[in-house]
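Figure 6 in text form: structure in, sequence out.
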């Protein structure tokens, strides 16, 4: 599944100024691969059409929420879904997106349809469905707005995971946890959905477990009770300064909270200008991330202010952190080779 380039609405007879006011229609092609009762590999194609031009998490959530019941109708015995999302290179979604836009353009040119917005596109697509193997889905702005409110209600209790741009495999294992991996793995061990702890232990190396729900006053009472029962020993206090691994490098930051499994840190970014070595500054946009205990390298002294925006740590502290970071990388590498 992946977003295609927006379809551009071009009337058959367009005035010159209309070129600068063309409407775009967001399209999200999807291909479902499954095996029938005879274990024959089959596929079914979908295209989500929307009048919401935001290509964000809310739109994806709205599309998937509409999609899953349709998948169950095709495969009533469906138990799990593996999602392959956008990436570099061409895939089946690119072909579907290009085909759909070409068919729409041809319909407009032969005056079989007038497409001026997303609703017109879906109306044409619904008629085209009779002669096509592609199933069309309409996700409205109202659907996205309603789902945005649902996500907003849940958001205060959810912890962000650092380095999501580098992650290529994410598996939900229940108990408010996710397994993440930098590289995808399609071996038999990892392809089976780990519904129990012993299955998680049998998976390949390289998977890291993250607790995605935090235990605090914002979370619901049941979640707080469950998490509190797992462990209450907190190693860090709010306002502690620490060095931690973030996106394979180490940075310093200030602790916001500790839930006995992960630490919520407000990270600084590396300094810039003439004096860059061992200097840091606060980013323009706050970079607050939850990191696992094992990625927190050590406590440090509060950085010294060097100017209004620039802060620094001593060479001794920087050398000590670098040594701990090297040890962290070596330990992680050895564990992946075992």
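Output sequence:
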């Amino acid at each position: 599944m992946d977003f295609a380039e927006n379809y551009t609405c071009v009337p058959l007879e367009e005035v010159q100024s209309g070129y600068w006011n063309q409407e775009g229609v967001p399209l999200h092609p999807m291909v479902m691969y499954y095996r029938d009762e005879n274990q024959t590999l089959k596929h079914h194609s979908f295209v989500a059409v929307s009048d919401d031009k935001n290509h964000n998490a809310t739109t994806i959530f709205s599309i998937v929420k509409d999609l899953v019941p349709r998948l169950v109708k095709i495969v009533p015995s469906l138990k799990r879904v593996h999602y392959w999302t956008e990436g570099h290179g061409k895939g089946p979604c690119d072909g579907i997106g290009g085909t759909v836009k070409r068919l729409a353009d041809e319909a407009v040119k032969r005056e079989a349809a007038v497409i001026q917005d997303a609703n017109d596109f879906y109306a044409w697509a619904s008629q085209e469905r009779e002669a096509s193997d592609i199933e069309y889905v309409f996700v409205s702005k109202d659907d996205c707005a309603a789902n945005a409110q649902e996500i907003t209600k849940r958001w205060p209790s959810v912890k962000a995971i650092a380095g999501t741009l580098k992650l290529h495999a994410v598996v939900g294992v229940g108990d408010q946890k996710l397994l993440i991996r930098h590289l995808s793995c399609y071996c038999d061990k990892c392809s089976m959905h780990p519904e129990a702890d012993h299955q998680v232990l049998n998976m390949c190396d390289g998977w890291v477990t993250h607790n995605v729900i935090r235990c605090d006053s914002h979370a619901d009472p049941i979640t707080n009770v469950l998490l509190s029962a797992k462990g209450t020993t907190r190693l860090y206090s709010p306002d502690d300064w620490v060095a931690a691994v973030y996106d394979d490098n180490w940075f310093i930051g200030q602790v916001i909270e500790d839930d006995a499994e992960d630490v919520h840190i407000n990270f600084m970014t590396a300094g810039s200008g003439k004096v860059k070595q061992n200097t840091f500054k606060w980013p323009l946009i706050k970079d607050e991330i939850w990191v696992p205990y094992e990625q927190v390298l050590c406590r440090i002294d509060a950085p010294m202010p060097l100017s209004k925006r620039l802060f620094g740590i001593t060479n001794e502290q920087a050398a000590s952190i670098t040594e701990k970071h090297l040890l962290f990388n070596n330990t992680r590498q050895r564990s992946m080779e075992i």
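Caption detail: The longest strand covers residues 41-50.
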